[in-house]
């Protein structure tokens, strides 16, 4: 009896090395929850810039854009269409892998990456030709602050998309395993939605 008890104790120890598993009170996956909390923090950062923007325009009553300056609304609108299109191509890629359509996944990811890269190139080209600098006036600081902050997020998103694209060509995803592309996809959709807010606030209103 004693030997059996010792054997059972040893078997129990073999299965429980190290500290006990953390208690998970939520059914939300850690990766998804982490991305959600990260996005919430990013919304707060954008909120600080939007607060400065509305303070200048509403409280300060300053002209927007600064007198003598113009914003390329048409080009920005075209660029907006490019970025929004990338959300649809990303969705196509996600739906393709759910059906084990690897070619659709690869095509969707490559197209999404190229659209995002095109958006960033046009944004940088806009900075080169817009005619004013961040230090020229408060309006310039806010303009470059908001659009530049978004551009930084696009750059991060492109790196994530590049990793997903490379993995898609290496056969890392399947209909049963595609979480590795869904989490970066959530971030990219956030980037797209945030640009729509920036575009209508900064260029249109």
In total, how many beta strands? 0
Distance between the termini: 82 Å
Major pleated sheet: none
| pLDDT averaged residue by residue | 90
Spans with pLDDT under 50 lasting ≥5 residues? 1-6
- Helix/strand order: HHHHHH
Report on the structure:
By secondary structure, this protein is mostly helical. The protein has a single domain (29-204), classed as Four Helix Bundle (Hemerythrin (Met), subunit A) (Up-down Bundle). Helix content is 76%, strand content 0%. The chain contains 6 helices and no strands. The chain has helices at residues 2-14, 30-59, 73-98, 102-129, 138-169, 179-204. Helix 2 (30-59) runs antiparallel to helix 5, helix 2 (30-59) runs parallel beside helix 6 (179-204) and helix 3 (73-98) runs antiparallel to helix 4 (102-129). The longest helix is centred in the C-terminal third of the chain and has 32 residues, at 138-169. Residues 1-6 have low confidence and may be disordered.
């Amino acid at each position: 009896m004693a030997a059996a008890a010792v054997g059972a104790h040893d078997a129990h120890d073999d299965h429980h090395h190290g500290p006990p598993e953390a208690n998970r009170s939520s059914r939300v996956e850690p990766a998804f929850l982490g991305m959600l909390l990260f996005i919430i923090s990013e919304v707060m950062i954008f909120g600080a810039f939007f607060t400065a923007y509305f303070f200048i325009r509403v409280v300060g009553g300053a002209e927007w854009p600064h007198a003598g300056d113009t914003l390329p609304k048409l080009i920005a609108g075209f660029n907006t269409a490019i970025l929004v299109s990338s959300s649809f191509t990303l969705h196509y890629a996600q739906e393709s892998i759910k059906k084990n359509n690897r070619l659709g996944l690869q095509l969707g990811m490559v197209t999404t990456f190229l659209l995002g890269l095109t958006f960033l190139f046009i944004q940088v080209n806009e900075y080169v030709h817009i005619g004013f600098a961040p230090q020229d006036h408060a309006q310039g600081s806010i303009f470059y602050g908001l659009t530049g902050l978004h551009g930084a997020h696009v750059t991060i998103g492109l790196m994530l998309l590049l990793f997903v694209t490379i993995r898609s060509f290496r056969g890392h995803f399947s209909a049963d395993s595609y979480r590795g592309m869904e989490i970066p996809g959530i971030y990219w959709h956030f980037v797209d939605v945030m640009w729509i807010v920036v575009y209508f606030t900064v260029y249109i209103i």
